[in-house]
Amino acid sequence: MTSLHSHPLFSRLESAQRILVAGAGGGFDVYAGLPVALSLMHRGKDVTLANLTFSAVEGLPLDAWLAPDVARVTPGTSLHQTYFPERTLASWLDLHGYPSTVHAFARVGVQPLRAAYRALIEQHGIEAVVLVDGGTDILMRGDETGLGTPEEDMASVAALAGIDLPERLVISVGFGVDAYHGVSHGLVLENIAALETEGAYLGAFSVPRTTREGALFLDAVAHAQAHTPEHPSIVNGSIAAAVRGLFGDIQFTTRTRGSELFINPLMSLCFTFELEGIARRCLYLDRIEDTHLMRQVSSAIAEFRDGVDSPRPPRRIPH
């Protein structure tokens, strides 16, 4: 049992020296894990960064591949497209004097993704994994009316659920941002409460801009927005706005034109969990276990959803 002044996430990672912080859902998800990753680095931990990628990494040179479906990305990695969050993050890390390799997992099904995770874990002697979701759809069981975009998140959860490690933890950052994709955050809170009753919820903590890690996170997001002006991260832009203390319909990209945003302080909270608990509560995880392609993951989830007779309706948060 930990003390109140010591958050359980960091207490659970205290004995691990080599830690993998990985973005679960593709895109810029790994950025949502930066505050924790940097905090661990500042405490002398050997942190490896990775992200399930949306970029066309099939075009990377052979020497970039650590193993099938996992590639090393550095500031100088050649890929002829401007949207490449892993390279953008590698460049930012290099600018600030941090180790500047970010590993990219190909967008594949559970079996090859698990093999890629195993290869990276063995290569770096990883003792603990922190899986990060920029958003809250990783907390959906599957029987809710709206799931958001769960394919990549749950493929990552399923892949790691089949790997034995001393610690496998999950962080969800960006409470409220998935409302755009139909997620009921009343149900998110209900699911968190259920995870608490099962002992899988480890509590939450904020990322203040007055901390070294909070300030660096804001700088990293600004750098990413400047280097990916045509496709900035809505999720991390929203989290960063919340960290800065902004509130309400704060528009920072034309991608959200016509939509009403609700930037709020809860977006900067890191909700933390045991991965086993999230895996155990997902009602369709067994159905995606044998997938090899991401479209098979999508089909399996859709087939499960077709069999849900009474989806849980959205739960209103009183106001």
Features:
alpha/beta; Rossmann fold; globular
Describe the structure.
- The protein is α/β, with parallel strands linked by helices and 319 residues long.
- It has a single domain, classed as 3-Layer(aba) Sandwich (Rossmann fold).
- It is 37% helix and 16% strand.
- The chain has twelve helices and nine strands.
- It has helices at residues 8-12, 29-32, 34-42, 85-95, 110-124, 151-161, 185-197, 212-227, 234-243, 275-281, 285-288, 294-306, and strands at residues 18-23, 46-52, 65-67, 70-73, 102-105, 128-134, 167-173, 201-206, 269-274.
- It is globular and about 50 Å long.
- The model has no long low-confidence stretch (mean pLDDT 94).
In short:
This protein is of the alpha/beta class.
Instruction: Look at the structure and give the CATH class.
Output: Alpha Beta
The helix content, as a percent range, equals 25-40%
- Could you please say which CATH topology applies here? Rossmann fold
Structure class: alpha/beta
Give the overall pLDDT as a whole number.
Answer: 94
The helix count comes to: 12
Q: Largest beta sheet: what is the strand line-up?
A: 3-4-5-2-1-6-7-9-8
What order do the helices and strands follow? HEHHEEEHEHEHEHEHHEHHH
